[in-house]
Amino acid sequence: MGLAQQSPGRHGSSTAWTFVRHQMRNIAPFATLIALLVFFSIASPSFLTVDNAYNILTQISVAGIMAVGLTFVILCAEIDLSFAAIANVAGIAVAYFTVQESYVNIANVPLPGWAAILLALAACTVLGLVNAFGLTVIGIPSFIMTLAMMQIAAGICALLVRGQIIYAVPKFVSTLGSGSIAGIPWIVIVLALFLLAGHVVLTYTRFGRYVYMVGGNREAAEYSGVNVKRVLAAVLVISAVCAGVAGMLGVAYFGSAQQNEFDGYLLDAIAAVVVGGTSLFGGRGGIGNTIIGLFILGVLNNGLDHIEIDSFLKILIRGIILLVALIINVYAQSLRAAQAARAD
Fold this sequence. Notes:
Number of strands: 2
Helix content: over 70%
Largest sheet: 2 strands, antiparallel
Shape: globular
Strand content: under 5%
């Protein structure tokens, strides 16, 4: 009888381990962030300062705005590989329509700032709609459709700038991208607003519930009356618009618009979403996870600069962290599937 019974200590330990396994996707990123903060604070006295905190927030802002839209896409178990190129289109377009007396602008007629902004947003919205049409109407897998769009957007950028660099942007965009208020960069405020809006939509609206339903079980969502194709189309457009805003502010932040300017943000934004714990298989995660992922990447990149590590080793470390996040993501999904099988 004594052998058949399980001691309370062992039962508690088993329960705790079960909880950790099931919450690994959320616990691992947070633990990683804490470990990085502690390590770099000890390794570099200049790391843990208010000024450096603002630097980190500013550095992650462009990728963060992109990551908000990408979170919607990944929650639906889809992928968007074109958002960085679309960001480049929007950034170049807003500069293209602002520049004066230049052969880059074929018409040589500068537009008002608001018109240039609207045209840039319209351009990225149209590209997002093309992605949505390819996925939901033609039936092209999102990986292939957005890969093709990445090339199309790169071609549009090449045609607009023709190897040149454009420096003019509307004053409003310049203020949001490179200005500050009360010492806080405007671009950080814009990031916070996008993160808040994304969280509210995903958590408190019917559309947000539909996103999770589509990502969690697409067939069940259809049987429940959800227009799956409309939701998939909407998330791709949201991703494109977020990328467009990030592209315009990024151009102002960097001080110029040029071809391939945001190519490096493709991996950064995807890594932020995945490292933060949002499931690649859809239905699990959200903006909170994306915020943790952004801070992990921001702290890692900034901290490695503070300890003057080899730039090539820096790339390797980022790649290893992304691989570990992917392993945890897949492992968490296998646990979820095993749990569902036992329940059945």
